[in-house]
């Protein structure tokens, strides 16, 4: 003999057969939106922060490494060609 809760559960499952598919589609859509937002954030936020830093008087990214500052720079193999 089944109790009322089992009957209610079975009735609910019969009425909403396509509900798990709908939930899956909603979750995949939400995941897609978050993936898009994180991709945009990864792409633009660092560039925006560098721009703000440069505008506020910080060094530009190109000036971070100069040959004088770079300790790992290879010595010039052809010093006689530097002036040409």
Describe the structure.
This protein has 84 residues and is mostly helical. The protein has a domain at 1-57. Helix content is 58%, strand content 0%. It is built from two helices and no strands. It has helices spanning 4-15, 19-55. The longest helix has 37 residues, at 19-55.
Record keyword descriptors for this entry.
mainly alpha; single chain; 84 residues; 0% strand
Structure summary:
The chain is an all-alpha fold. It is 58% helix and 0% strand.
Write the layout of secondary structure elements.
Blueprint: H1 4-15, H2 19-55
* Mean pLDDT reading: 79
SS content category: mainly alpha
* End-to-end gap: 98 Å
Total strands: the figure is: 0
Ranges where pLDDT stays below 50 over 5 or more residues in a row are: none
The ordered H/E elements are HH
Sheet with most strands: none
| Tally of helical runs | 2
């Amino acid at each position: 003999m089944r109790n009322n809760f089992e009957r209610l559960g079975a009735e609910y499952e019969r009425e909403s057969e396509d509900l798990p598919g709908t939930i899956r589609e909603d979750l995949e859509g939400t995941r897609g939106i978050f993936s898009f937002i994180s991709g945009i954030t990864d792409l633009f936020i660092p560039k925006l922060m560098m721009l703000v830093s440069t505008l506020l008087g910080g060094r530009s990214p190109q000036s971070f490494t100069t040959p004088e500052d770079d300790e790992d720079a290879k010595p010039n193999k052809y010093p006689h060609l530097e002036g040409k």
